[in-house]
Amino acid sequence: VISSTTSKYVMVEFYAPWCPHCQHFAPEYERLGLTVSRFNNASNAARSRALQPPFASPAILSATVDCVAHEGICQDWGVTGFPTLLWGMREDWQARAGDRLKQINVTDPTTEAVEEWLGKEAHIDLSEFHVSRQEVMPFFRTQLAGTQPQALPSNLSSLPAIGLPVLPHTASAADLWDVQVAVGLLIHNAVSQLVNEHVDQGAATKGRAVLANFTSLLARRFPEHPDAFGAKASHTPPCRESLAALSRRLDGTTGITAGKVNNSDLDPDHLEQGWQLCGTPWVDYGERGWRSCRGTWPGKRGFACGLWTLFHAVAAQAEDEDAASDLHILHTTVSTFFDCDECRKHFEQIPVNPEDLVNRQAVQLWWWRTHNNVNRRVKSFEDRLQDGDPAFPKVQWPSPAECPFCRLPKRPRAFLQRRAPWSPLRPERSEDELAQPAKEEEVWDFGEVASFLERYYSPASAHGR
Hints:
By secondary structure, the protein is of the alpha+beta class. About 45% of the residues lie in helices and about 5% in strands.
């Protein structure tokens, strides 16, 4: 489209379907696109009144690129996080002069904020043609509701699968298939970043080490069902065995050339040909997609749901003496490879205090508290933008149906804090302090929560692959 356009300006959103902030920005970009369309129509009408020929093409071309379906294009334009919004003159796009394009950086990811940026940076006033959220949301919901399940490619990039919608249910245990899908997608995202030509040598070296540590951890902690261990004590279950093999590959000298890290051996297509996660053919991921983590709408839940399941499941299998180290490895992996910029920044700002690391149970409760913190934050976006999954609203978890005894009648905070020195309760702070733990609107029995986490994420009770 860009190669043939005659528009004066081009604006492109690079996104990933699984990225929560991309999902929240989608109706905003839809509004922006309709605003631009009105602007283009008015520009041509004005030229017509002035007896000038109309533009052969709109004054502004707005487009989107799905970086899962078109990963190479996003790498070519140096996209390293989502969503990324680039703006520039047509000739700069056509000349592939990425250094002359501008990234639209706005604090508030809304149509109004982008319009303000365009007014300041490009001197284009779109205010007269503004499309309200009330105008676009019914159309946007209709589009989503009419989306049909898609056939998926049979390779690593198929992992953010759009499965058939499922109705909400009260699960009794974690879904190990969704853990496997999430791990496969995270590894795919990681190796794609490592082979990106825009990644400098220092980041490539660090990234390879982070991925090696992550796969080494999963080679010990991946939640395998007991049946996978076989009758012999020496038998290594398939998922852990495959992750151990990948860890050795990452930690060896294969990627070292002339003393420098060369990650070309990790090209996703090349890796896929010689390595399978859990011994599962890659075509199976495309055919099956997500299971318990499927959302009602395309792009909802999926990867984020699978990652949370992974983090809780790994924490549930840690030894007391290794729990803090395991948390550090997972935390560093998210900070290094999770492509949703705002999600990653918020996650990195959530504090990990010494009392959160004293043993396995403390680490499990940190992950639980962080999960609820993120849920509350995402809910605030969904409430404001009215774009949440109607069948899976963001709530404080576990629900009363999942854990009837996890909540207590409200009591003075001081009493609850005396119940355990590692209590997840923290002093209440401003709503603007996103890095702080979620306020306790509900009073929790932390012993019951810990017992629930043990039961729910035990591989013995989890849904198999």
